[in-house]
Amino acid sequence: MRRLLLIAFSTVLCLGMFVSAEAAGSPPVTFPTSPKGLKAPVTLPSALDATPKYVPQISCQPSTPPGIRKLRALVLETYQEGGAGNTARKCNEGTSEHADGRAWDWMVNVNDASEKKAAADFLAWLTANHGAKAKRLGIMYVIYNKKIWAVYRESDGWRESSGHTDHIHISFSWNGTRGNTSFWTGELQPTDYGPCIVFAGATAVIRSTPNTKPCPATTTPVRKHPNTLIQLGSKASTVVSAQAALKVKQTKVFDADTRVAIRAYQLAHDLPITGTLDDPTWASLFPSKATDDVTAGYTAEEAAAYGLEHYGDSTLREKSVGKATAFLQLALGLAPADRNGYFGAVTIDAVKKLQADAGLEQTGKVGKSEWQVLAGV
């Protein structure tokens, strides 16, 4: 009886181990027991970086930032296999961290024995010990040979995916993208929350420096426009009208020159610098076609009186966004192209001029005193 119980227990234990292994998911290729890994350029701390959370594409800033450049160089030097592949891509190819500059494709074909071996070494090293190296590098997930592994779902192991038989796709957190992780710096770094979306429905503001504060809630645009959001690479029929308004060559394709022109236009007209044609930018380019304008029907004088009544006890300053800023811009007499509900350089200059004319301190900020001057009180 004791022997039968031991056999039964062993059977259940083995079955349980088998189920767990299956539940965790098998890797895309056979992993070596002692994989060849990457050597960190610094002494690593004992503590691990925080587990990267999944952060989808939110901006249009295709590039090859420092963290990706360094990892690409180290991988190619270490394994001497595969091609450099893609980093940045156009922004109209569906949601992809490539458009954020947060992804790299290492070209290692599963049908090439030496490349497959290099891929197996790297992936085994990266995912071992519950993804310790992925955390140190700020890697969110990898895809290879129709399988995906994510550090934020590490207990799920390798899950079914599609494609990616000729390359490993690697997606990074913002810390990993910028190279601000313990693997490169030898220290744990604050979380980089990345660029923030200002207006709902738009892409995030382009930025190249870390953002260590969580993004505020998005704001409803103060004006909308019938045209839809379009980004780098688009061939939408509306591209040519934007190019005409921006005074760039009408190629009918949202190309790099158009993106440069849009960024310059946004900077000059108090718009979040997204590099995309979003609602606020369309409404600024073509104010007569704007819809849902929160200041519609108000004169500058009425806007000043409204602002004093509703916003007199608050302070508006650089990067203030929303209805209050839109009423301020109308009250200041800004051109329709500049009344976008975003407190930028044009608004700051107008406020400082108002303060100078009224004998107020030129802070560029707006409180009750400025509203009173605008309202003639």
UniProtKB/TrEMBL annotation:
Residues 64-166 form the ARB-07466-like C-terminal domain. Residues 1-23 form the signal peptide. It comes from the Bacteria. InterPro entries: ARB_07466-like_C, Peptidoglycan-bd-like, PGBD-like_sf, PGBDSf. Pfam families: PG_binding_1, VldE. Residues 248-285, 332-374 form the Peptidoglycan binding-like domain. Keywords: Signal. This is Peptidoglycan hydrolase-like protein with peptidoglycan-binding domain.
